[in-house]
Amino acid sequence: MKREDNGKVYRLIKALYGLRQAPRAWNIKLDNTLKSLDFKKCALEQAIYTKTSKDSILLIGVYVDDLIITGTPKKEIDKFKAQMEEKFEMSDLGLLAYYLGIEVTQTEGDISIKQTAYANKILKEAGMINCNETLIPMDPGTRLTKITEKTMVNSTEYQSLIGCLRYLLHTRPDLSYSVGLLSRFMQEPRNKIHGFGDSSYGVNTQEGKGTTGIIFYYGESPISWSTQKQATIALSSCESEFIAAIAAATQALWLKRLLSKLTHSQEEKVTIKVDNKSAI
Q1: CA distance 74 to 24
Q2: What are phi and psi of 50, to 5 degrees?
Q3: What's the confidence (pLDDT) of residue 76?
Q4: pLDDT digit string, tens, across residues 170-204
Q5: Would strands 110-114 and 209-218 be described as parallel, antiparallel, or unpaired?
Q6: CA dist., res. 19 & res. 118, Å (int)
Q7: Is the pLDDT score of 94 beyond 50?
Q8: Locate the Reverse transcriptase Ty1/copia-type domain: which residues (predicted)?
Q9: The pLDDT of residue 192
Q10: What residues pair up with 126 in beta bridges, in sequence order?
Q11: Which three-class secondary structure state does DSSP give residue 216?
Q12: What is the tens place of the pLDDT at every residue in 101-148?
C-alpha cells in the first residue's frame, strides 16, 4: 500500500454475506423489490406484505430470505413467483410443509400445524426421550417460590430449555401456563422444586399478584394465547378478573387492527367472554 493511501478504506459495492451490515442490506433490497411490485408493508407487523386489487389478494410472510406466499387466485401467486425469480435466485418449494420447526399438513379445506420433531428434539436434549406421557404438564396446585438454599443447576442450560419450550407454545397452548410459570424463575434455578397447593387468585406468587391467561380464536382456530403474572396486586378475585379482562382487551384491539390491515376490511368488534359477573 502506498503511503498516501494510509487511512483510506474500501467501499463495498454490495454487502458481503456474514458481515454485520448484510442482513440490513438484504432487508432493504427485499423491501424495495416488494414495494416495486405494488406490495405494502403492514404497519402493525413488519414481516407481512399485502397486495390487493378488485378481484385478488396476496399475503407475503417474510423471515430473512424465506417467504411464505398465500392468496387468491392461484394465477396471481404464480405471477408473483415468476417476478421474484427474475430478480433473485429462488427455489419454489411448493405447498408449505415445514417452516421454522413447524410442520404443516394441508388437506382439502383444512390446515393443521404441529411441532412433533421439535418436541422430540427438546426431549432428547433434556435426556427424556424415553419418558412416560402425562395428561397434564403440571399439577394445577404447584406453587413455586424463590429460594437461596439448595444446589444451583446450570442456569444457561435451564434458560435454553425454557426458550425451547416457549417456541413450542406456537402449537401447544395447553403448555402455556406451565412454561410461563417456569419462565419466572430464570435467575439462579435450583435443583429442587418446593411445591404447595393453593387455589386462590394470587397463587404462585409471593407478592399476592394474580395470573392472567388469554386465548383468542379466529373462527374455530386458536391464533393467540398467553399467560403471565399480573403487574399489580388485586384485592379480590373480581379485581384480578378485571385486570385479566383489560389485558385481553388490549390484545383484542391489536388483533382486530392487524386483521383489518391484512384483509383491507373494516375493523370488526371482538367479543371477550369473562366468567366473573362482578368484573363484567
Answers
A1: 31
A2: -130, 150
A3: 92
A4: 999 889 888 888 888 776 665 462 212 122 465 55
A5: unpaired
A6: 29
A7: yes
A8: 5-138
A9: 64
A10: none
A11: strand
A12: 899 999 888 889 999 999 999 999 888 888 888 888 877 777 776 766
64 Ramachandran zone, left/alpha/beta (phi>0; psi -120 to 50): left
3-state class (DSSP) for residue 152: strand
Strands 66-72, 98-99: parallel, antiparallel or unpaired by DSSP? Answer: unpaired
Mean pLDDT in the chain?
82
- pLDDT, tens digit (0-9, with 9 covering 90-100), for 5-24: 777 887 777 777 777 778 88
Strand 221-233 and strand 66-72: the pairing is unpaired
CA distance 28 to 228: 36
- Torsion on CA atoms 130, 131, 134, 136, rounded to nearest 10: -120
SS3 of 173-191: HHHHHHHHHHHHHCCCCEC
Give the cell for residue 54: 378488485
- Please give the Cα distance from 252 to 270 (Å, whole number): 7
Largest CA distance in the chain: 82
Q: Which residues neighbour 91 within 8 Å (Cβ) at sequence distance 6 or greater? A: none
Quickly count helices (H) and strands (E) in the chain.
6, 9
Q: DSSP alpha helices (H): ranges in 149-274?
A: 155-168, 176-182, 237-263
Tell me which residue has cell 442482513: 23
Running DSSP on this structure, what letter comes out for residue 51?
E
Please state whether the predicted TM-score (pTM) of the whole model is above 0.85.
no
